[in-house]
Amino acid sequence: MTRRTLRLHVALLAAVVSPVLHAESQEHSHTASVSEVIPVERAPGPAVLRNESRAPHTVEVTITAEPVRLSMIPGKSTVGYAYNGRVPGPLLEVYEGDKVIVHFRNRLPEASTIHWHGLHIPNAFDGSPFHPVAAGADFDYVFTLQKGSAGTYWYHPHPDHNTGSQIARGLFGSLIVRDRNDPLRGIPEKLIVLSDNRFRPDGSIDIADPESMQGGIDFENGRECSHIFVNGQIEPTITIRPGEVQRWRVINASAARVFRLAIPGQTMLHVGSDGGLFEHPVEVNDIVLANSERIELLVKGTGAPGSATVLQTLPYDRYSPQTRPQDWDKPRDLLKLRYTAWPLSRPVVIPASLRAIPAIDTSLAVRTRVFALGQGFINGKLHDMNRVDETGKLGDVEIWEIENIVGMDHPFHLHGFQFQVIDRDGKPEPFRSWKDTINVPKHSTVRIIVRLADFAGKWMYHCHILDHEDHGMMGVLEVN
Ligand code: C2O
Ligand code: CU
Known about the structure:
single chain, 480 residues, 3 domains, 6-stranded mixed sheet, 5-stranded mixed sheet, 29 strands, 8% helix, 38% strand, globular
């Protein structure tokens, strides 16, 4: 193993295996203006946020967003934005029932927010465009994680019309909510944050001019980029012991790229999605992960000692024909999976039953809303911060029928509430799960059911292709 892969492996392990007490240094305590604040290069990769609280069931952390110079691609230095100096930002690891306090310090030259993608928390702390944090300002996000919310989430900025560029510059991080009685506890974990980016020859982040040809393609396709990153690294190595089973939590943090994950010649067990574990593991050959979705997989180390394989992304045609990239039908390697020399002697027992997910009863639904997804529009409208598009009643159960009327996929995300999928093009969903984003493939219809529980306020729903979202493919649901 080379030094580079060894270091990375240690970083991966540190990010996932160590508990919350792992140190994340906060060496910058300045409040000066951003222009003087491009700190020295620091190693990218996930770290765990340090809990500053001694109180029981309380996690208190500080997240600073600021411009940084770091090495994103080999041999080049790049000025981007980072949370606590890292791309991806550090992992926030908490337990169900924990009270979470995040001291957010915006040291960017522009307004931002932190949106806790997928969490069911009070509206004032959702970090939506309705609650911007001005350049140089601070804001405390305070929320408590409900029972049953254990799962893999992520956090990212969400300023009005400016989400895509801030995420492209490096602002995104992972969040794991744990259950003290996790049915899979004891199984080693790996966290895999997928993103992509594009660079100019001088190493700077290439965000295309909207008037340019590339800008036009990005506007249609979403900004899908040449360089794919796993935890901020290009094609890193993960090791596994022959016979071992690993739990992989995978986050798609890219602006537009949809991954179709596979390990050639081997099946995986799909055990969870956006809102945590399924009721039972499902065996799959490959799995589609649209942007902003998360999955949990059990990867079985079926290879021989000393051998190696890869995690790939297989072709997935989300595109309209005019802007489909030329190489869309070529598989790409994401990471190397290397088998150690020492097999595990004891076989790992995977529970057949993970948890109960009670169905939201469709007969309880008080209304059905219909959303038509066009190219950049929802129900023919562009987002307007001064308009409420839909109003709902707190506690109501609703069915949402989301129809994609155009020739490319749009991943639809609802803030604040996890939902269940009823059917896709009339085909009943084969098993239940909790979701906050659902990819609606071209010319198809998905029906979901949601309970507008606990939290009133104005909630966004939108396409999670960031270029579409920023363009205004978003609406507002006001719950009272
Ligand atoms: Cu992940 Cu409204 O966003
Ligand atoms: Cu879209």
